[in-house]
């Protein structure tokens, strides 16, 4: 959920449009035991969580890829012919046993990083207004920006560059840029997408990645759906969160109170600290907890208690928002189920 929380935050900061691709078709291609009815059920639940992150739905376009792809088939053809099979194998390591649909899917996930994929949103009028809104204005006479650079005899290259920088006003191109907040496991997709951008005369998408939250049992362990005690879920009750943190969260503290007071904790491996670094909004309080814990002034139980309070609040707020979102509202806001282009 962290990339979605962060994405909603960025939308508020930049007052920008957000597009969310729901890869229902990829799920079908990856797992032959699934059908679209099952995938739709999972998608509806996941999208409720997305909407509960407080997106501005008037500037958010959520779409099921299996329904939307046909509307941009021409752009897809132009994009997909740029990527070779050898590039896909080198990047994603597909074995021979993969079906052809799954092997050819990565370019479909990359395409929403480019604005022509959404011709109904990023129209020419939208792009013109976007450029106008994002072009800095000079104080006083704005026509100064149009004056040629004054060049004097004997000027060095460095002096010329400084003069140009002083006179210039940065004017964005008539093309919206794309910023992709995601987990860093998505990097291969968008690294390959960036390589294709110049071939289409499009701006390269930018990416910003969040690191994974560690499993409760330790930074070297992995979360698994088959082991619900190794992670905190957005559906957990307060008592479940408290139990999981107290019983399973790996501690970097010492075994006894005396040892902890003498040697302090290793906060680099302490799971409670790692979670607080993500979810505690008060940076001053966070640094104070880390300092005291590292120096032996706080016990493991104190740090876990602080984390429990923070996580219970985060999860309860999210659950309350999610509970107000009906299936009908989800369908109304998703292209493929009810939303129009």
Automatic annotation (TrEMBL):
GO molecular function, one term: ATP binding
Keyword set includes Protein biosynthesis: yes
Source superkingdom: Eukaryota
GO cellular component: cytoplasm
SUPFAM superfamilies, per database record: Nucleotidylyl transferase
EC code: 6.1.1.2
Keyword field: Aminoacyl-tRNA synthetase, ATP-binding, Ligase, Nucleotide-binding, Protein biosynthesis
BP-aspect Gene Ontology terms: tryptophanyl-tRNA aminoacylation
Pfam families xrefs: tRNA-synt_1b (PF00579)
InterPro entries reported for this sequence: aa-tRNA-synth_Ic, Rossmann-like_a/b/a_fold, Trp-tRNA-ligase
Catalytic reactions of this protein: tRNA(Trp) + L-tryptophan + ATP = L-tryptophyl-tRNA(Trp) + AMP + diphosphate + H(+)
Keyword presence, Protein biosynthesis: yes
NCBIfam families: trpS
Family label: Belongs to the class-I aminoacyl-tRNA synthetase family.
Protein name per UniProt: tryptophan--tRNA ligase
């Amino acid at each position: 959920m962290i990339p979605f929380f962060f994405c909603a935050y960025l939308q508020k900061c930049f007052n920008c449009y957000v597009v969310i691709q729901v890869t229902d078709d990829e799920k079908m291609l990856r797992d032959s035991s699934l059908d679209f009815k099952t995938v739709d059920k999972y998608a509806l639940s996941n999208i409720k969580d997305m909407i509960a992150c407080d997106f501005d739905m008037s500037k958010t376009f959520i779409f099921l890829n299996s329904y939307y792809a046909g509307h941009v088939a021409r752009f897809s053809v132009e994009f997909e012919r740029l990527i070779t099979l050898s590039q896909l194998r080198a990047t994603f390591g597909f074995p021979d046993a993969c079906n052809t649909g799954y092997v050819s899917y990565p370019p479909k996930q990359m395409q929403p990083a480019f604005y022509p994929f959404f011709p109904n949103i990023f129209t020419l009028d939208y792009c013109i207004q976007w450029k106008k809104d994002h072009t800095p204005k000079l104080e006083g006479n704005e026509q100064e920006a149009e004056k040629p650079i004054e060049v004097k005899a004997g000027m060095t290259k460095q002096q010329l560059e400084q003069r140009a920088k002083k006179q210039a006003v940065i004017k964005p191109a008539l093309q919206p840029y794309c910023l992709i907040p995601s987990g860093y496991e998505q990097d291969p997709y968008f690294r390959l997408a960036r390589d294709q951008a110049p071939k289409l005369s499009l701006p390269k998408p930018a990416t910003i990645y969040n690191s994974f939250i560690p499993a409760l049992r330790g930074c070297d362990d992995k979360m698994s759906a088959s082991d619900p005690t190794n992670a905190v879920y957005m559906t957990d009750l307060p008592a479940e969160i408290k139990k999981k943190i107290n019983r399973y969260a790996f501690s970097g503290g010492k075994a006894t109170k005396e040892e902890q007071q003498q040697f302090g904790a290793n906060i680099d491996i302490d799971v409670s600290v790692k979670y607080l670094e993500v979810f505690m909004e008060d940076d001053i309080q966070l640094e104070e907890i880390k300092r005291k814990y590292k120096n032996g002034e706080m016990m493991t139980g104190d740090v876990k208690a602080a984390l429990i309070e923070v996580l219970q609040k985060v999860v309860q707020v999210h659950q309350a928002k999610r509970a107000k979102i009906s299936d009908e509202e989800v369908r109304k806001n998703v292209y493929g189920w009810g939303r129009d282009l």
